[in-house]
Each structure stands twice: as structure tokens, then as C-alpha cells.
User: Fold Gamma-butyrolactone-binding protein from Streptomyces hydrogenans.
Amino acid sequence: MAQQARAIRTRRIILDSAAAVFAERGYERATIGEILARAGVTKGALYFHFASKEELALGVLSAQLLDEPLTPQDVKLQELVDQGFLLAHRLQTDSLVQASVALALDSGATSVDRAAPFQAWVDQVAEALTVAKARGEILPHVKVLDTAELFSGAFAGIQTMSQVVCDRDDLTHRVVVLLQHVLPSISTPAVLTGLDMSQERAKRLAADYEESRRRHEDADGTDAER
Amino acid sequence: MAQQARAIRTRRIILDSAAAVFAERGYERATIGEILARAGVTKGALYFHFASKEELALGVLSAQLLDEPLTPQDVKLQELVDQGFLLAHRLQTDSLVQASVALALDSGATSVDRAAPFQAWVDQVAEALTVAKARGEILPHVKVLDTAELFSGAFAGIQTMSQVVCDRDDLTHRVVVLLQHVLPSISTPAVLTGLDMSQERAKRLAADYEESRRRHEDADGTDAER
Assistant:
């Protein structure tokens, strides 16, 4: 377990370093040597985790997705709302998530499969919408794939705009606005009334997420001491 | 007039070249020398139109906005729909518009005011929504600025996603989906029913736009011969 905790930490250091070098130099110009120098790990350690620069890119790209599923809610659409709030929080606070999204949106990174993270988001949202549809939460005319792609694409855009304009300070508000404009077109009125799209919920979710992260890290730390 | 037509053409050649160099080398690394070499114009001609690399960036950025206003419609919200369709068409066909949006979304271009084009779009949309509100086309609860920012940000995101996934082949469809999801939340039912958000309208607008451009170019050409 101690070894595993160390490995997780080393992996994260390498990913953080790769993300920083990609952001500063651009993905195409970045070299493994620069990433090694910044991470301060051995070549062996890096290649143990990532066989190539492409694998490092995939690692950075996948960091925008949550490791663990959200707390299940009675209303599936509420989970979709929560997902948006949590991603906003992680974009505001986690430099690896920021770098991950920047890489996905970097039109200069021509040798990276930038469609993959978009597809992963579309899949997650489509899955939630499919369950919501089966439960009768959404209106019959809704085409799950169209709506899932709209959510993913629109979110990518509003977070970019928020970053450019105010370093993502107002991102939670923009997510509320997105939800308020889109959900009335897909949700049944009864479900819509019960949805909590408030900034207060966003804050509570963010606090719970940080609390859970701290607990994980403490657990890892204890393991590492043993 | 001949001189003016030549000047317009030279300006466009310089902008196209700047856009191409920014896209290939990244804005920060691009030099005026490279842009000159690609444009094949004299240093004097370039500096007559643009005093600095920053001014070239502003020129490229402003190319995403239309030179002329759209054909006015009885229903103001229809103009908003038309604007979305026309931008989709220009993003699909005009390399300068593509480069303009790429520059606005390039997080590496740190010395460019990337907020300016977003602000210009928000202003245009907010202006249309303000008129629509005064005419009673939109619901009373709508906050014009929030909705304008949502439209601009969401559009930026869906066009990025469309570019990454299929080189913007499906962009018109994605714009229809965006409109179908957002307009029911802001439009009065009577106005909503009369809006034409069809791909057929998008095609017609694109054809009219190209026709008008050709006429302008012919007129310029005739002037230049005189």
C-alpha cells in the first residue's frame, strides 16, 4: 500500500509537470526531457507510468473526468446539474484540470486525439440523460445525443469565455445560466421544479468534494508511513 | 475608387497572411517578417494598414464580425437565429474567420486582448435581445446580459467541438440544436412558433451571403480596371 500511495503521488507529479510544460511550450514543441527536468523524477519512473509523450497527453486529457462517480440522486437530472457544478469547481481550483481542458482546446496540438475528451463527456452526459429518459424525467421529443453534445460543447465554450474574461471567477454563475436556459427545454415541469440549480448547492458540493479529497490524501499519507 | 479597391485587396492579403502565420507558428512566436514574406507586399504597404503585430491581431480578430448588418426581420429574434446560421457558414468556408476564432481561443496568445471579440459578440447579441425585449418577443424574466453571454460562450464551444470532431461539417445542425434548446426558455410561445430555425433557411442565407460577396467583388474589380 505504501508503494501504491507513492506511485499515485509520482504519477500525479509527472502529470502536473507534463501539463505545465504543454501549457508553456505548446504540446508539439514540448519534450520528455523538459517534463523529466521539471518533475524531478528518474527516466525509469516516468516510463514506468507513461510510455510516450502521447500517453502523457492522454493522461493529462483524462484528468478532467472524475475518478469516482457522483453521489447518486433520486432525480437523475440533478446528477447532471451536480456534474456541471463540480467541473466548474475543479476548473477553478485544480491546475491539472485547467491544463487538461487547455490541451483539449489547443488547436496547435495536431498530433493529439482532442476528440477523445469531448467524446468522454458526451458519453457521460448521454448516459445520465438515457437514465433520466427511462425514468420519465425528460420530455419525449428530446434526442439524447443532440442534447448531450450541446451540453458538452456549450460548457467548453462558457468556461473558455469565463477564463478569458475573468480567470473563471464567474464560472459557477455561468453554469447556472446554462442550466436555466437548457433544462426547461428538456425536463418535465414537475422534475424541473424540484431541481436545485442554486449557487448554494454548488458551494456545498465543492466543500464535500474537497473534504473527500483530503480524506483520501490523509489515508494515502498514513499508508505511506507504515 | 480603383485605389480604394486595391487597398481593400491588399489589406485582405495581409490579414490572410497574418492569420496563417499566427495559426502555424502561434501568435507569440510569429514575426512581422514572416507575415511580410508570405503576403508578398512591401514593408511600407503593411505598415500603412497595420502599425504593429498587435494591430494585425486586432484586424484578424475583428474579421469574425460581419462588415454589414443582416437583413432586418419583422421578428428580432429571427435576426439572432440568422446571425448564428451566417457565422456557422462563414466558419465553414472562410479561412480568415476560422483563424480569427482560433486566435481568440488560443490560450497561448497571452499578449492579445482575447476578451475583445467575445465582448463584441456579447454586445451584438445583447443589442438584438434588448430590441426583442422592447417588442415583447421575449419573456419578462430574461436577463439580457446573461442570455447574451450564454449564446456567445455556448456558440464558441459548439463550434470548437464541431471542428475537433468533424472539421465543422455538422456545425449548422449543432447551431439548430443550440437554438432549439435555448429559445424556448426565452421566447414568448407565439414568437417561438413563428421562428424559422431550419437548415433550409441556413442554406438560403448562406447562398444570399455568397451572392452579395460576389457582387461586391465584381464591383471592386470593375472599379480597379478604370
